[in-house]
Amino acid sequence: MNFALSEEQQAIREAIERICARFPDEYWLKKDKEGGFPAELHQALARDGWLGIAMPEEYGGSGLGITEAAVMMQAIAESGAGFSGASAGHMNIFGLNPVVVFGTPEQKQRMLPGLIAGRERACFAVTEPNTGLNTTRIKTRAAYEKGQTAPPDWRIACCFVGKGHRRRGVATAALGGAVDLIAGLGGGTVEGYPEDAGSVPAGFLFNGALSTYEQLGFVRDRKIGKHRWVVRRVVEPRS
Fold first, then answer.
1. Range of the domain at 172
2. Which of 29, 14, 17, 24 is nearest to 76 (CA)?
3. What values do phi and psi take at 173, rounded to 5?
4. CA 67-55-19 angle, 5° bins
5. Which of 52, 69, 157, 232 is the most exposed place for a label (fewest CB within 10 A)?
6. Backbone torsions φ then ψ of 161, nearest 5 degrees
7. β 205-206/159-160 pair status
8. What would the pLDDT profile of 148-187 be if each residue is shown by its tens digit?
9. Is pTM beyond 0.85 here?
10. How many Å apart are CA 49 and CA 238, to the nearest integer?
C-alpha cells in the first residue's frame, strides 16, 4: 500500500506552506500570549480558495476530498501554527462535511458559500451550560456505558479513512497498529465501537467495521442501538 502524496497533494502542501510562510513564529507567539482568532491567516486561506477545498464546486469550493483537506491541515500545523492555526480552518472544512454529504440544496446554498469565501465561520458547541470549553468535565455519560461491568483501560473511538480508500484494509492496518501500541504500553482491556456491519458511513470519521474488530480478536460485549455493538479485547503486554 502506497501512502506517498500524489503530485496534486504535494502541490497543495507546497501552496499552503507558501501562505504559512507569511506568518512566522513571532506571529503565533503573540497570539499565544494575547489570544484572539488568527483572522489574517483565515482570510489568506479564504482569498486563495482553500477554505472550500472539500466542498462542491457549485458553491465555490474545489470539490477535492477530505484527504486533501488533511494534507492542508498538516501543512498549516507543521508551519509553526500548531493547533491554533489549524483550528482557524478545520472547523469550517470538517465541521461542515455533514452538510456537504447530507444537507439539502437549500442548506448548502445558505451555509457553504459564506464559509468558503471567508465571510462567515463555523463553530463547535458543547451543550452543557456549566462545562464551557473544558470538555473533560462533561457530566453527560454516553450510552456506550450502559450495561458496562467495568471501565476499559483503553478506548478506540474512531479513525480517519478517506471515503475512496475504504474496504481496502486501511482501517484494519490502523486498528492493528493501535492494538500493537497498546501492547507496548502495558496492555489492558480495550473497548471499540465499530460500524454496523452492513454499512459504510458517508462521513469522514470511520470507526472500522465489526468484522474488522472481530478479525483482530475483539468479541461482542453489549449492544448500542439496534445494529451496533461495543466490542472488547484483553491485550497482553508486549514483552
1. 141-235
2. 17
3. -65, -40
4. 70
5. 157
6. -135, 115
7. antiparallel
8. 788 899 988 776 665 566 677 777 888 888 898 899 889 9
9. no
10. 47
